[in-house]
Write a structure and sequence with these properties.
The protein is mostly helical. Helices cover about 70% and strands about 5% of the residues. It has a domain of about 170 residues. The two termini are about 20 Å apart.
Length: about 375
């Protein structure tokens, strides 16, 4: 039995007024989806902010642990030596990315660190020095410590209510800050609204597609399915690449200058949220380069041979665009430029492998 050739939208011929009515229905459904997405995000706002804060919290905690140890070593190192050390010293890179301590990694994955709950600290002291001090106080009760004791360290627990406050202050010293009372609340609302839009975006696009698909031929919808899916995959890859690969390198590099200049970083929460949302978005958009190249080729503006011949000029343009879209540091620029150069080659391959005929010139079934 031959498969049915009947199209799902064969009976979708409507008047202009009917189109407006259908558009109104789809818009209302999309708005309801956005509202539900924002409501869900509002209840999960703390977890979402913890995820968004993850990269900066990891970088700040690693900075706080390494700054004191490296201060004496790096205080006289100039810019170029500092950059070379950061690029080639793998141990320093691991320290900045928080990979030295397995136990610390579990704490960092939670995003927001929990304040200490006890008022006890443990102090490591030399047993020989402690014995000498006690011997000076009461020579009869405390004899001179042996040579073995002089090379031994012991831990003494010290308790006081103030120690808990000290721990809280030390823990918060490497957290992001808010400069006014309403900033955390407004940031919470902002993150929840953006997350709600992202959560509802598949439903919104689906409603848009139901309206637009009624006016497309089957062969046209085939291209939408193909290139729409490819565009979504490239966008998600760009966002994930930025969040999990670019941020650790960029933050480690930039915070290294705070360490070199002996400056305590205080990252503002709202500014970091804006940065953490904008940069992955720019990476996702820039990763659409192969589809843009294919679109230009389908419009007969460029051909695959043109892309090959102008490869050097294209790399220069990619470098300039990467410089404009990323922060002032060279690391983020290079981390955007290199993938775009690879995507440029992918675009050339797509122009060669895809059918050269425009879908709008294909005869209708």
């Amino acid at each position: 039995m031959a498969p049915s050739s009947k199209d799902l939208f064969d009976d979708s011929t409507m008047s202009f007024g009917e189109h407006l009515e259908v558009l109104r229905v789809h818009l209302w459904k999309a708005l309801i989806g956005v509202f539900l997405g924002i409501v869900i995000a509002l209840f999960q706002g703390s977890a979402i902010i913890g995820v968004v804060r993850g990269p900066i919290d990891q970088a700040l905690k690693a900075y706080g642990q390494t700054a004191e140890d490296d201060a004496q070593v790096l205080q006289d190192i100039d810019f170029w030596e500092r950059t070379k050390s950061w690029l080639w010293d793998q141990s320093g890179l691991d320290a900045m990315s928080g990979q030295d301590d397995p136990g610390q990694e579990d704490d960092l994955e939670e995003g927001v660190s929990q304040p200490p709950t006890n008022d006890t600290i443990r102090v490591a002291i030399n047993a020989g020095e402690l014995g000498n001090a006690l011997h000076q106080v009461d020579p009869e009760a405390y004899p001179v410590p042996s040579e073995e004791a002089r090379n031994t360290s012991i831990e003494l627990p010290l308790s006081a209510p103030e120690f808990r406050q000290f721990k809280i202050v030390a823990d918060r010293a490497n957290n992001v800050v808010a400069l006014n009372v309403q900033e955390p609340f407004l940031t919470y609302l902002k993150v929840s609204m953006i997350s709600g839009l992202v959560l509802a975006s598949p439903w919104v696009f689906y409603q848009m597609w139901l309206f637009v698909a009624a006016g497309l031929f089957p062969h046209e919808r085939k291209y939408v399915y193909l290139y729409g899916t490819m565009s979504m995959v490239l966008f998600v890859v760009g966002v994930v690449f930025c969040f999990y690969l670019v941020f650790p390198f960029v933050l480690g590099f930039l915070l290294g200058f705070n360490e070199m200049l002996h400056i305590q970083p205080q990252i503002r929460l709202s500014e970091w949220i804006s940065f953490a949302v904008t940069l992955p978005l720019l990476f996702g958009v820039s990763f659409q380069l192969p589809l843009v190249m294919l679109f230009m080729e389908r419009l007969s503006i460029f051909e695959a041979d043109d892309y090959r011949e102008k490869r050097r000029m294209s790399i220069l343009v990619i470098a300039i665009i990467s410089m404009l879209l990323t922060p002032a540091d060279p690391i983020s620029m290079l981390l955007m430029m290199f993938p775009l150069c690879l995507l440029y080659e992918l675009g050339i391959w797509l122009c060669q492998m895809s059918p050269p005929k425009s879908p709008f010139e294909t005869a209708t079934a």
